[in-house]
Design a protein that fits this description.
- The chain is mainly α.
- The protein has a single domain, classed as dinb family like domain (Four Helix Bundle (Hemerythrin (Met), subunit A), Up-down Bundle).
- It has 5 helices and 2 strands; from the N terminus they run ααααββα.
- The protein has a two-stranded antiparallel sheet.
- A hairpin with a 5-residue loop joins strand 1 and strand 2.
- The longest helix is centred in the C-terminal third of the chain and has 27 residues.
- The termini are close together.
Length: 173
């Protein structure tokens, strides 16, 4: 089987965290790393390829989408900045994820910046039961939003696995 990395070289943690927030953070971090691994060593053309017609989804599109998801939930909602424009909101069909090295570099830079900003917020004191205002006027708990982030990455890592397998046969892990 064409594995990504040997188990001893896998950057993802298999630790058993103590506490709910630590567990959420571990899963979120591991899924972020998984998405990055799925995109490693691919050309801009491969990253932008839409491997499962008629879908317009691509690995590059997923990176851009998840940068927007990180920004929306951590910056706009959890930090109370709902008027900040959303990232990539006009690209719901992934058409902006094109095989241009500058587009690829920008997408990965923005994604990493959003992860770093989210992790910085996660390093602050957090009350998982705190209610925050959602974009739809309702309230949601910090816990629910963080669990949603894990779910969002888990779902899209499944998509990324299928996309990568279509590109070069690498699957799993």
């Amino acid at each position: 089987m064409n594995m990504w990395v040997r188990p001893e070289g896998d950057p993802r943690s298999v630790a058993s965290p103590v506490g709910e927030l630590a567990t959420i953070r571990l899963y979120l971090t591991n899924y972020r790393l998984t998405l990055g691994m799925k995109c490693e060593d691919l050309s801009p053309e491969q990253l932008a390829s839409r491997s499962v017609p008629p879908s317009t989804m691509s690995l590059l599109g997923l990176v851009r989408h998840l940068a927007g998801v990180e920004h929306n939930w951590f910056h706009r909602i959890l930090q109370g900045n709902p008027d900040t424009p959303r990232l990539y909101s006009s690209d719901l069909d992934f058409d902006g994820a094109v095989a241009d090295p500058a587009v690829v570099e920008e997408a990965f830079t923005v994604w990493r910046e959003q992860i770093a900003a989210a992790d910085h917020w996660l390093d602050s004191p957090i009350d998982l039961d705190e209610l925050v205002n959602m974009a739809n006027g309702e309230q949601g708990s910090v816990r629910d939003i963080l669990i949603h982030m894990v779910e969002e990455y888990a779902r899209h890592c499944g998509h990324a696995d299928l996309l990568r397998e279509c590109i070069d046969g690498r699957a799993g892990q």
